Amino acid sequence: MTAVSYDVVVLGGGVAGCVLASRLSEDAGRSVCLVEAGPDYGPDPGGWPARTLDSRALPREDVWERNVPVHRFRGRVIGGSSCVNGCWNTWGSAADHAEWERAGGPRWGSAAMEPYRTAAVRRMGLREVPDRELSPWSRAALRAARELGHHEVDMSLPGPPGHGLPLINSVDGRRWNAALAYLDADTRRRPNLTVLGDSVADRLILRDGRVEGVVVRTRGVPRTLHAGLYVVASGTFGSPALLMRSGMGPADRLRDIGIDPAVDLPGVGANLSDQPGVFLPLVPTPELDAALAEKERDGELYVNRVLVRAASEHAPADGWDLHILPSAGPPLFGSLPPGRYEAGVSAFLVKPVSRGRVSLRSADPDEPPAIDPAFLSDPDGRDVAVLRSGLATARRFAGSAALKGLAALPEGPPAHELPEAELRARLGTYWHPVGTCATGPAADPSAVVDGEGRVHGVANLRVADASVLPTVPAANTQLPVLAVAEMLAAAMAGS
Ligand SMILES: Cc1cc2nc3c(=O)[nH]c(=O)nc-3n(C[C@H](O)[C@H](O)[C@H](O)COP(=O)(O)OP(=O)(O)OC[C@H]3O[C@@H](n4cnc5c(N)ncnc54)[C@H](O)[C@@H]3O)c2cc1C
User: How far, in Å, is the centroid of ligand 1 from the Cα of 105?
Assistant: First the structure.
């Protein structure tokens, strides 16, 4: 094994990892090494696979696992899940920030986060949806939202419930991921920044409450990297797995799989919070199929562009707990004959109370962790109630004057009245898992890191990615994770 030293090693080159490596290497006196398990396609979009950059669909290349339940999908490539995602960027409510501030302190409050949100919007090049990207279905969905009394709001800011368009990290059908945005050619020319692709962080080496090194396997070949500070940014599934392989986690569970616990942190892998939802399918009219086909011929067909923040009776005051998404286009999974499309309205729970878990099956970094999202598992049945409320709203959209001429409700009982078992069978995910290394004070046994990402009980180790969010925001998570990574990078840099 060869050993190399840096000031900071960032483990995981996804959304947060790209922000951290870019911001921390702005100081020429700080050497930074970014370690990513997947390929590094470089700063030039010409060097990237065309399918990975095509923002009209969700790519299935460069992922950790294929042919698995959809909630397990995540990117394994420089740029992480920003290379495989839907390119939507929205922001949560004031109530989310109140929750975050209670867990992480003033840095997590709404006003304190604003400069980081703005910096992320700018550096990611987030833009408004161009008019030509609205299909006839999306235009009708905007009319339906107005018809049903949902006011227009800015989706990239906290604010009231309502309807609008997200900001997108897509330009003329090209997905602009976090690596292209934060690790551009100028940034990569910095002599103090090293990017190691195809390199899996196997485990951290701990001694007397400090990290002494990290074993990294580059295309199978192991070596040890040393640093003053180790920052784990391997995502909601990868970060708790790396901590647990290194002996940090629930002590009894670690012993069960033959890992010696070094630091007993019961919260590692717990508190998994993802946003489940159900798609209400409709039957498109031949006119809608024809209009969508024309849009597809022009290369301008996007399945969904319109979003509604809706509130069930359980939503916080002035907040929302549902995203309602009218969509029409090629199916996300499977296929239809040419010229035929899928249309419908989805209801996603954006503030679920159920909590799942990520756990290790073994200490082998090549064995995927067990991921139990535990959707709709809260004993009071609140998540099921919110889902039913969302599906009732989705049905009102389907029945609106604006949409009902384009697609019809299928026969049968309304989705919001279906037996619970059937709702569960139809459950999908919005792909926004967070919380498996949650932020909170050391006195809270479920907390893993403090408000600046420091791992409780370990001197020179931080976690800084979606896994540290104390609760899932009522939003798509990419922009919140970018902003949190900007904030944590500034904290690490001492500003
Ligand atoms: C299919 C899909 C669609 C989505 N759509 C949207 C959307 O439209 N809008 C939105 O806001 N959000 C969306 N998201 C969520 C968003 O992409 C995530 O919130 C965001 O990427 C989280 O950032 P992260 O840095 O925590 O993790 P990631 O971006 O997943 O990065 C983690 C990185 O760590 C690497 N890694 C893991 N383990 C190791 C290891 N042991 N060693 C080295 N490297 C490792 C991974 O390969 C990966 O590159 C979507 C996600 C998915 C999967």
Answer: 25
